[in-house]
Design goal:
Elements: E1 12-18, E2 21-27, E3 35-36, E4 39-40, H1 64-71, E5 75-81, E6 86-92, E7 95-96, E8 107-112, E9 122-128, H2 131-140, E10 145-151, E11 154-160, E12 166-167, E13 173-174, E14 189-190
Length: 194
Amino acid sequence: MSAGRLVSTRAGIAVCAAAGVVAASVIWPLASVHVRAGSPMRIGVGKPRQDPNFPTVDPVSGTPDAWISVVCAPRLRQEHIGGDRLPAAGTVLLSPNTTFDVPRATYSAVCLATDDSASDPVLLAAQYLDEDSMQLDLADNGIEWYCFAGHQGRLVVIATRADEREAGPNGFTVSPVLRPLTSYGFNVYSDPGL
């Protein structure tokens, strides 16, 4: 395997070998990140796509991988592959969700925001089958700001409890934590469930 090359499966362990050092990252089903020289690589924005399952949801460009990588900070994760025989370390963006109670989600994970000045640095990344379920879970968890898009028949949402706000590119108030997603065409919403 060449240095800097990331090998991954849809869900499981990604292994990167460079100069005889093995690094592994858990890649969750919602997102992965391409690594070159130890840094996340942003994938191009591209043309907005409309998910046919959600015709009333604004189309956005990019993929969940790219969306997650612009708002979630990479962090070191230690893993043991095959018991204690092969300890490894690598970077991950998402971790299992132990922070938010989202019973209506088909998938959920958390990450730490790239905006390290956020009043609450934990972000929720989740998938839903419909918008009503998403709105209920977000409101039940005290979410202040969220963005969502249709992707492959699911609604993908990224949300924060951080209460910071600033003027967005369209003149409306947005969360600085989620603002990077506006480059993909996302709208940043507040007060879910209302």
